[in-house]
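Task: sequence in, structure out. Protein: Lysocardiolipin acyltransferase 1 (Trinotate prediction).
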Amino acid sequence: IINCIYDCTIGYRGYEAFGDITTVLGKLTDEVHIHVERFDIDSLPVDDDKLEDWLKDRWLNKEKSLNSFYKNGHFTENPPLLKNEGRNDFFLKFLIYNVAVVVGAWALVASKFLAFLSIFHFIISFIVSSYYGFDNMIINFHDDL
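Result:
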């Protein structure tokens, strides 16, 4: 049962194309800003025409908010955030990731226990995702809280 819906608006600063070879080469966007609004299901219109109007209104609000983001640097309903002095540490992350992959691959080859544990984990993950689904498991876990 769905209790609410989330409306997410995403704005990008810097390089905005994704899914091409430049992403693989490390040319990523400089900043990603996400504005999230929560709406209880009970607050939404049930009539199809009213729901259509509500959705159109949401769309117009999102467009205004995105225009504000690209013009002023923040979404309509959000004040500007403090500046985060970020660094371009892609090379460091790339190096750490590759070292972890090489060390992990070596550990799987060198240790029968780790190889067995990895195979066991793969089988359990495959069974759970095929027959039950991790998303259902997470939803049920949060519903029980």
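The longest strand covers residues 4-13.
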